[in-house]
Write the structure tokens for this entry.
Amino acid sequence: MNMNKNWQEWLSTNSRGWRLLVGFVCVIFLALFLHFREVRLEMLEVNTVAKRFVVAQIDFEFPDYETTIVLKNQASQEVGHLYQIDDLQVHDARLKMEQDLFRGGRWRATVPNASFEEMYKASDLLETLLLEARFTDPKTIQKICELNLPDTSYYEFIPPAEGELASLPEDIWQDIAAQIGQSDVFHKETIDYVIRTFQPHAWSFFRDGMLEKNLQMQLMNLIPEKMTKVQAGTRIINPNDLITPRHVTMMKAMKQAISESHKMWDPYTIFASLILAVIFVTISALYFRISQPHFIRSLREISLFVCIVVLTLLFAKVIEFILLKSTSDWIEQVRCPIIAPFATILICALLSQRTALFGATFISILLTVSLAFDHTHFLILNLVTSIVVIICSKRIRKRKEIFTICTKSWLSAIPVLYAFTLAGNQLVNAALFINVGASFVFLLISAILVIGILPALEMLFGVLTDMTLMEYTDPGSDLMRRFAVEVPGTYQHSLVLGNLAEICAQSIGANGLFCRAATLYHDIGKMNNPQFYTENQQGAVNIHQLLTPLESAQVIISHVTDGEAIARKAHLPQPFIDIIREHHGTTLVYYFYRKQLELKGNRPEEVDEAKFRYPGPKPRTKESAIIMICDSMEAATRSLEEINEQTLTELVGRLIAEKAEDGQLDDCQLTFEELARVRKTLVHTLLLSHHVRIKYPKKEKHKHG
């Protein structure tokens, strides 16, 4: 509570030094936003027709997928056909060999030193080698060697035709014999015998398609991605060209090259961003100084405006990141996100529509020059939707109305998006529906964020929106129910005064709703001692007859300090507490002061006037001064015997003159012209509220004969 009070007091200082500090913070944030920006290039859609020339802005390389695919296809074509021997034929040859071994006649005479087991294993190994053998052309074997694959199973031999019988050349059998001999477990005679047994056979050959594809894929993977160089000034796209994936890839590569060429940490680049930020802030300050001098002098309003701008920039960066990094085809077609209405609603609700108009324009231009979107479409769409928000935000009394405002803003975006489609020589396309849907999503997110952020900003900066004020006028709140029950007379006085102050405030363009809400609470301090106030006294007993004039005055004055204590305990907003303290200013409790003078023989020097004055401070806003005037006038009219325009005009004039003469209106910024309007409105409203009713005759009882 203490920290919040100190914060609110700091916001109320309006010191030039603090305002300059807030401006400096704004410059830093703007400089960072302008400096760390994405590169913006025209977004191209595949299968659309180019409208203009696109020229390379910088030297760059791009992955040439089309050329790479051609090179990979060429590499795959370098793999020839691969053939293998029919498995059944090999198994049949092996079976005959086994039968010969079992008979044991001829082989024992030819290979006397070999055992049966050796002969069996040699024939088994030969069978395996024949089954694993693949036959192809020399070029394919060379490619296999380049892949560093084992090449012992590959042989240079092309069968005459697939499925036809053919014998293997002598050199292949020699290679196979050499492979068997590498094991050093077979006699040479054993190897020669086994080879001679299999060699006379004619074999059928079939293509190994699976192995061919595997080799082709391995060769294609060896081909590196082809990078094509493009020099600055080279024409990339011509008008009426059909946009292909190659064009899109080139644009992305150029964007990446431009981004890398932007030296983020170069002192000149940083200084350039800083200069632009200073220009933006300076122009804004000059505008507010000329058009809204009260704004530029208010630390609270400047800080709130800067806070909203910073929040909007962060919101924009998040959206930009999501859209640029997304790989979804649908999201890639979103060209114009709607961001500015987020800030516009906040400024309308927390500051004013006039400030919101400048804020919407300022933020739209700033986002246009900084974000990587279509700048023309983005600027138009955000300005149109923001202006519609301003038009529809004249009176936001309920939080759900924010959704209504965003819906109207979305409806205004639809014809704008359709105009963009027509400008692209298309009657309708899929991108139109995607952008209409995306616009709805952006505005829905904005509405949700605004509803969530508004209470935090209100509390942080001590600002009351019409929505919050309407919530405080609810008679069903705990404090209002207690107020109505414990001090019903004062409660009724507050209701009447609220309506009176609201009408008077509206007559000069002040915040009438605030006046009505604040006056409901301005006398809550009377709940501590309700019987001391005339409007709550019932019967003929006046408790002040038992007190001295000084004691009575102190009790009456105490309702201000008691009201402040009750308000703080109930966590009422600071502006309400200010009204409680200021609605009597430092005026004199004149009735009891006069009684004290009479007791002292009309000797003013013996009466301490300060003890009969309210603690103040004097009204510091127009609304506070209006409530003071209306409060005095509403109470004074009860003592008038005759109420007409003349008596009311004289009474209002006298009361305002007394307040002015006492210095109560010195700090409230009310002009003479505004005071005249308030006086006129006050008289007119009181006349209407005290209109004369006709007297109804008494109902007579008729005798029935």
